[in-house]
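Case study 2.
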Amino acid sequence: MAGQAAAQGLALHGAATVAKNLVIPNQARIEDQTGHSLSIVMNGSGNGLTDLAAGRADLAMISAPIEVAAATVDLDPNGMIAHPVGRAAIRVMVNPANRAALTQDAVRAIFTGGAVDWSEVGGPAGPIQVVVEAPGQGTRAMVEAVFLGGRSFTPQARLMPVLAQLAQVAGQAPNAISYGNGSSIRGASVRLVEGIEIAQPLSLVTKGAPTPEVRALIDAIAALGVE
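Prediction:
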């Protein structure tokens, strides 16, 4: 498939954060500049790397360091090269009606299951609903690796298939808390928690050194700037 993709276009699989923040909004410009059509599959950073390793994609889009993204699918990234193309900022969000003054330590306790009721962290009594992406997604992996220090989200968390759905749930459920970044939060009715911002690297990954046409694509996307 990768050989066919190279002849007809270039296949990019992986993180929706990379696709929605950089590639899709500029797709026509990128295709015009590089002369290659793009086939985009948003299936998560880990799955993007798996597809790259299996030859189903020309590049993987990842929204976490390659070691972190590869660990989500138990993949050895040896021989793969990550090419930085931008960055995003992960923010913690709650329902707009939630006025609890949350500290970083309080959010960590909530995310890992150490606090299960809003009254434990300065809010009105009521159960906390943590809402997260399914495992294998780069943004989730970044929160766990960086903000939670390698710990996992509480097993009681509500799982959603894609990042954009987290803001939808947080905007509708008064007891919800979650996370997101630029493209997934934009336009959502949520309150961002002050004082918590996690830098998120966005990269394109190749298996070995990129071909000239792939290198041109990487350069074109990287030139778009950062979020």
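The chain has two domains: 2-87+201-222, 89-200.
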